[in-house]
Structures are given as C-alpha cells and as structure tokens.
Design brief:
This protein has 449 residues and is of the alpha/beta class. Helix content is 40%, strand content 12%. The chain has helices at 2-10, 17-26, 28-40, 52-56, 60-73, 79-93, 104-114, 132-139, 158-167, 186-195, 248-257, 279-289, 292-309, 339-348, 378-386, 398-414; strands spanning 97-101, 122-125, 143-146, 171-177, 199-203, 211-212, 215-216, 223-227, 241-245, 262-264, 267-268, 316-317, 325-326, 332-335, 387-390. The strands form four sheets. It has a seven-stranded mixed beta sheet with strand order 1-9-8-5-4-2-3, sandwiched between helices. A three-stranded antiparallel beta sheet has the order 7-6-13, with no helix packed on it. A hairpin with a 2-residue loop joins strand 10 and strand 11 (267-268). It is globular and about 70 Å long. It starts with a helix and ends in a 35-residue tail after the last helix. Bound molecules: pyridoxal-5'-phosphate. Pyridoxal-5'-phosphate binds at residues 103-105, 129-130, 132-133, 177, 203, 205-206, 227, 229, 239, 241.
Length: 449
C-alpha cells in the first residue's frame, strides 16, 4: 500500500489514474500491476525552469523579418542596427550612453579595463553570484576581495563592505551584482564608493529594467554591465552583452576598447579586445526589447502568485518586493533547509528547478590561493546550501504555478511539516533577516517549532 502511494505521487497530473484506483483497490492483484506500469512512465506534467520556445512562437515572424533585414543588407559588424539598439537600450536604462559588446563577461572585463584596473589591484565583489562577477577581476590580473551579502537582498551588504574597505585601503573598485533581478541597496554603496574614491561597476546581467528608488540598473554606478545570454530577461539568440555609462569620455573609451582600442582605422590608442555585439543579435534584441516590459510584468505577476500560494508553507519565499525597488525576477527563489530533497521531489513530478549557486565564489578551486575558508561568509554559504529557483518565466500559466506550489505544500506535509512551522530555512546562524513591515517585504525568518 505504501508503495502504491509513492507511485500515485509520481503520477500526479495523470488524468484518469486517480479514477482507476478505487476499482484497482477492490482487486488487490491489479494494484501492483497498475503501479508498475505507471511508476516507469514519465510524469504527465512537465514544467521546465524556462521555456524559450513559448517565448519565441508569438514573435517568430517579427524576429525573422528583422534578421532577414540584416541578412539582406550583408552588414554583419556593428552598423546602424547595433547603433539603434544602443540608443534604445540607453533610453530604457535611463543613461545617455550604451555600448554593445560580445557577452556579459566581456562587459565586466571591458569595464575594469576602462576603470584602469591593472594586475595586482584589489577589486571588491560578492561571493554569491555567477562566476563571471569575480572571474573578470581575476582575468585582468587583479585580486578579487569578497564581502558577505545581505540575507534579504542577497546582494553586497553595505555594512560588511564598509568593514572590508576600512581594513583594506588598497581596494580600487567595487563590482556590485543585482542578483536574480533585484537591486542591491545602492545608496549606502554609492556613499562608500565616494568616501573611498572607488569606481563602482554594476553587474546588471540578471537585472535589466530593475529599479532602485526610481533609478534603473546600469544608471547608478560609473559603468553598468549587461548580459543577453538566452536565459536572461532580454535574451539573444546566442551570446551578447552591453555597457552603460553616464560619462561621455568613458563611453568613448569603451567604444574603442571593444574594437582593439582603436579610435580611428588602424590607430590603436589602447590595447583592447575584439568584443562587438553581433549585428544579427542586435536585430533580435531590438524586437525582444519591445516586448520586455510586458514579459517583466508577467514575471512579476507570477512571483506574486507564488508569494500568495506559498505564504502558509514552511519555505521562505525570497526575492523582496517593495515600493522602493522594482524586481524583475530573472529568478524567483525560495529558501529551504531541505532544498535538495525538495528539488528531487519537484523533479520527480516534472518540475524543473535550479540551484544558484551551489559553491560560493570564495570557495572556488581557482581562488584557493586567496586563502578564504568555509565560514568566512556565512550568509553566502547558507544561501548556497538553501536557495532553489522555481519556474517564473512569463508564459507560465496560473495552473502551472498552482501545481508547483501544491507540490511544495505536499512535500512538506508528507515530511510532517505544515505551514508556518517546521524546518524552514535554518537561516544558518545568520543575523536574522529583516522583516520590514512598512515595506511589506513578506520575508519571514523561519521560526523553530
Ligand atoms: C551575474 C552575472 N554576471 C555576469 C554574467 C556573464 O554574462 P555572459 O554569460 O553573457 O558572459 C552572468 C551570466 O550568467 C551573470 O549572471
């Protein structure tokens, strides 16, 4: 009987199976047979973490027209298509200058070059991000220095940054990441950058269109860096990246650096990269940019649905939503001490999830020489163990969200835990996450039973 129950769970969503059970129960021998057949079958419902085909279908003709325009022109390097995209995205981000390049990683590298960062310089960043945030620092020969993140925003904690800056006066720049589509707490970080005369670079790869107190990502620091990797909210048909700045001189410098440091043909002011935004990608991105706001709105609505449906569950629904910031939900994440079991359970029921990021940057093998240890950044380390991203893409249906949320509830009720109690996130010995009633963050620090 227990075994049959397991089979039922793995078949959630298979219409008719539940109806067969009463009959099967009356004829004991058939229960096993039915169970064997269905246990081996794939779950009927499949909800991927991201569904780019669903995004593509309604805009296919529009994009093909734009791509055909480039093909017919046979102009594949920079040109008007890239320039037009740069103007449109500068406008979108609220800055005067945008410079396309080949990837988000190159954007970070170019930003560091333009900031004059050299081998041996120290650059502060977060240990809880995609590798590129720290990788670009190492690649230029500089030394990544880490400070822990805030348990609510998941981004650099200004208090921790301040401590590190006081201890290490040689630091020359900060790369602040707006992780998962939510902004870092920029005002105190800007104040610290001013106080210590540092270059402030925004890694907005996951946060195009996100806002902090009315200002868009990429418009608050000296240079903003964006990625158009296909899974980003504005995703290309391959790699692509972009830099933003409010400073005309920096813009000219970056424009040169992406084409071998050349200011005029065969004259090289600096040694730069070959890192241009592909013209075909610019054509694709221009079409997609015109849809970005309603995709973002759909992501936000999906996040709010999860927030409501999971309000009584033992998982802490992360990603703050408040009147001061506009979160764009490149990822919607929950925090759970049972993250790995929950992930297996969702996978066995056809739901795709992802762990961002299982190993914090200070513990990466390539940074062993920096001599950081486990325990140095407890918030980041706990998040690496407990965070799980759920599907939140714009085309996700209400029913699918309800299904995912119901699986989360079932997972906990079957493990003997119910809403509001049980093993929520451990908070891992962290400072207790702030509950900001005024802003209605709906972020709860788990209470022990
Ligand atoms: C926070 C962050 N920074 C930088 C990058 C690098 O972007 P790309 O993959 O376009 O090089 C990514 C991409 O995943 C990212 O998430």
């Amino acid at each position: 009987m227990v075994w049959c129950h397991t089979a039922t769970r793995s078949l959630r969503g298979f219409q008719g199976f539940q109806d067969c059970l009463p009959v099967a129960r009356k004829r004991n021998c058939n229960i096993i047979l039915v169970g064997v057949i269905f246990k081996m079958a794939q779950p009927f419902i499949k909800i991927p973490l991201l569904d780019l085909e669903a995004q593509h279908r309604p805009i296919r003709d529009e994009i093909f027209k734009a791509v055909t325009r480039v093909i017919d022109s046979q102009k594949f390097i920079l040109g008007e298509e890239v320039a037009a995209f740069e103007r449109e995205i500068a406008d979108y981000c609220g800055v005067p200058f945008a410079i396309g390049c080949a990837s988000g990683t190159d954007a970070l590298f170019l930003a560091l070059m333009a900031a004059g960062i050299k081998a041996g310089d120290q650059v502060l960043t977060t240990p809880y991000s995609f590798f590129a945030s720290a990788g670009a620092i190492a690649l230029i020969g500089a030394v990544p220095v880490f400070a822990d993140v805030d348990p609510v925003t998941f981004n650099l904690d200004p208090a921790r940054v301040s401590e590190v800056l006081e201890k290490m006066p040689g630091i020359r720049a900060i790369i602040v990441v707006h992780l998962f589509g939510g902004c870092a707490d920029m005002d105190p970080l800007i104040a610290l950058a001013e106080k210590h005369a540092l270059i402030l670079i925004e890694d907005a790869a996951q946060a195009i269109g996100a806002e902090y107190k009315g200002r868009r990502t990429g418009s608050m620091g000296h240079i903003g860096c964006f990625s158009f990797y296909p899974s980003k909210n504005l995703g290309a048909w391959g790699d692509g990246g972009l830099l933003t700045t409010r400073d005309a001189q920096t813009a000219e410098h970056l424009r040169a650096l992406r084409i071998h440091g050349s200011t005029s043909k065969y004259v090289h002011q600096w040694a730069g990269l070959n890192s241009r935004l592909d013209t075909l990608q610019a054509a694709v991105l221009r079409v997609k940019l015109s849809h970005l706001d309603h995709w973002t709105k759909a992501r936000q609505e999906n996040a709010e649905r999860y927030r409501t449906l999971l309000a009584q569950s033992p998982v802490a629904l992360r990603s703050p939503s408040d009147s001061q910031t506009r979160h764009v939900y490149n990822q919607l994440v929950i925090q759970s001490a049972k993250r790995d079991d929950l992930r297996d359970y969702l996978a066995s029921n056809g739901v795709g999830t992802e762990i961002y990021y299982p190993l914090p940057l200070h513990l990466q093998p390539c940074f062993r020489h920096l001599a950081y240890r486990t325990g140095d950044f407890p918030v980041s380390e706990t998040l690496s163990r407990e965070i799980l991203a759920l599907p939140v893409y714009p085309e996700l249906s209400e029913q699918n969200i309800a299904y995912v949320a119901s699986l989360v509830h079932t997972f906990y009720s079957e493990s003997g835990e119910h809403g509001g109690r049980g093993s929520r996130s451990t908070c891992g010995g962290l400072a207790e996450p702030r509950r900001n009633e005024a802003l209605d963050l709906n972020l709860k620090c788990p209470e022990e039973p």
